[in-house]
Amino acid sequence: MKIAIASTFHPYRGGIAQFNDQMAHSLKSIGHDVRCYNWSRQYPSVLFPGKTQIKTGTTRPRSGPEAPMDSISPNSWRKTATEILAHGDVDLVILPFWHSALAPALRGVAKALKKQSPVTKVVALMHNATSHDGKASDKWLTKRFLNRIDGCITLSQSVTEDVKKLAPTQDIKTLFHPLYTHYPKIKSRVESLQHLGLPSSAKHTVLFFGIIRPYKGLATLIQAAGALNPDIHIVIAGECYGSWNPYNNLIQSSPAKSRIHVFNKYIPDSELPYIFGASDLVVLPYLNASQSGVTATAVHYNLPIIASDVGDLSATITSGVTGELVKPGTSKELARAINEWVNATHTPEDFLPAYAAIRKTNSWEAFAEKLV
Fold first, then answer.
1. Whole-model pTM above 0.90?
2. Backbone angles phi, psi at 100, to 5 degrees
3. Cα–Cα distance measured from residue 186 to residue 180, given in angstroms and rounded to the nearest whole number
4. Which residues lie closer than 8 Å to 238 by C-beta, 6 or more apart?
5. Whether 307 contacts 326, CB under 8 Å
6. How far is CA 235 from CA 197, 207, 264, in A?
7. Is the pLDDT of residue 293 over 80?
8. Arithmetic mean of pLDDT, 56-81
9. Contact 1, 372 (CB under 8 A)
10. Which of 95, 254, 320, 349 has the most Cβ atoms closer than 10 angstroms to its Cβ?
11. Which three-class secondary structure string do you get for 101-154?
12. 74 prior amide bond cis, ω within 30
């Protein structure tokens, strides 16, 4: 099958780029002809809340056949469609969606593709139905995009339900978030604590990992810190999108501030073995969610998860085995769950069989097979 994917790839940073790189590789590995089309400009700088969109030591792709898309240039949307179809008949075009700011460009590409080649199937891979922390205009933009495609793939049932609300007649296939296998091998706890400059006296460490945005509920975890056992430390590792001041104020007023360690920056893959190596437990105190790539990373590094019972986060968590689920936005319940998990002295042997089963069913090969 000839497949084209128009989205964000290396050298752009972040989970979506990693997902697309892995998806393209997996489709190729099972025998499909896959071509990838990148953004020459993804987000206009004024709309991007982080420090940089690309990986350190790289440059933004130049406009051309391999990076024809410009999010604010309609001419590039038509050009992208022409580039995709320039290599002969294409059976399937995949347009990953995760933020409504890119919806006009993706809609433009889809519209031009169907105009030039009505028989080419154009499918959206919906990471979210609308942007997290989004507004009513986000839903409108997403709905316009959904009306221009032939079908949808989602990674969780919760996103499927959200898509149905926007496009009730749309053809939807619900798959899953595959587990990553490309990360470096985990480091020992002693080496990790030393590398990160954390105190060796930290008996237990819980990790909040990933981009920091309001919907991820970091404030709830910080508020829970004072009720945690005095030998539990918190590591916050990820770049804050927006103002850090509200979180910093919470930390400074917390009785446990000396046990809260912050790495407010983008965490490259090379640092993951230390970040996860220093941790006993991953905490996802999300206020709302679809699915999370952080759960896939936690499974890769064999760490249990305590998460809010929102979206599809429960798919990875078997209560008492691979972690616990708590009510979102409740710092007391979150602190209780963390304390109880640590006090129960779980060992990897308790949850490794469950994670092995998840790896088998949620592999990239299985995802690629079901996608096509």
1. no
2. -65, -20
3. 14
4. 208, 209, 210, 211, 212, 263, 264, 265, 266, 267
5. yes
6. 11, 5, 10
7. yes
8. 87
9. yes
10. 95
11. HHHHHHHHHHHHHHHHCCCCEEEEEECCCCCCCCCHHHHHHHHHHHCCCCEEEE
12. no
User: What is the residue whose two structure tokens read 């997403």?
Assistant: 142
Q: Identify the three-state secondary structure at position 202.
A: coil
**Mean pLDDT of all residues in 36-57:** 74
> What's the whole-number average pLDDT of the chain?
91
**pLDDT of residue 132 exceeding 60:** no
pLDDT tens across 71-104, in order?
A: 999 999 999 999 999 988 899 999 999 988 899 9
Rounded to the nearest 5°, which phi and psi values hold at 250?
A: -65, -40
Distance separating alpha carbons of residues 323 and 250, to the nearest angstrom: 26
Residue 7: both structure tokens together: 């989205």
Query: Roughly what angle, to the nearest 10 degrees, separates helices 15-29 and 293-300?
Result: 70
Cα 79 to Cα 37: distance, rounded to the nearest angstrom: 11
Q: What is the DSSP secondary-structure string of 258-315? A: GGEEEE-S---GGGHHHHHHT-SEEEE--SS-S--HHHHHHHHTT--EEEES-TTGGG
Structural domains in the chain? Answer: 2-175 (3.40.50.11930), 189-360 (3.40.50.2000)
Kindly report each contact of residues 340-349 with a partner whose C-beta sits within 8 Å and lies 24 or more positions away, as own/partner.
341/281, 341/304, 341/306, 342/204, 342/229, 342/232, 342/280, 342/281, 343/229, 346/304, 348/302
- Secondary structure percentages of the chain, helix, strand, coil, to 5: 40, 20, 40
